[in-house]
Amino acid sequence: MRIGQLASVTGTPVETIRFYEREGLLPAPDRTEGNYRVYTAKHADRLVFIRNCRHLDMALDEVRVLLKFRDALQTDCGEVNALLDEHIEHVSRRIRELKVLEKEMKALRARCSMPHASAECGILQGLEHGDGAPGARGRAAPRHVRGSH
């Protein structure tokens, strides 16, 4: 199948497929004489596996480790268990961070209960001065959720 068919079968954007190829997660497919990529069912199965990992917010390095074990079916899966335990802790830590962020945002939102002139908006003032929510003052970088591809 060609890349468009693989994208359709797996529900994966073409650019994401190319990205996974560049990252070495998806092996490069054979090419036709016309230089079209030709994918197999093995590519589709591997891509579904990668997407399932990414759906669980696993980083590319975590996916690489899991793929290594998936490809070596006779190896002990103790490292897989350890990786998942670490990822669960990461998710738990992120949930705690997001709960703090939610409280900060609610405190900021409480600064402006009804619409009025922007110059008097407590939310804008809080964001301007960094005093809109607990822990916001002096934050060096914005919070972000791990990227997904």
UniProtKB/TrEMBL annotation:
Keywords: DNA-binding
SMART domains linked: HTH_MERR
Entry's Gene Ontology molecular function annotations: DNA binding; DNA-binding transcription factor activity; metal ion binding
UniProt-listed InterPro entries: CadR-PbrR, DNA-bd_dom_put_sf, MerR-type_HTH_dom, MerR_fam
GO biological process: positive regulation of DNA-templated transcription
Organism: Rivibacter subsaxonicus
Residue ranges of every copy of the HTH merR-type domain listed in the record: 1-69
Protein name as it appears in the record: Cd(II)/Pb(II)-responsive transcriptional regulator
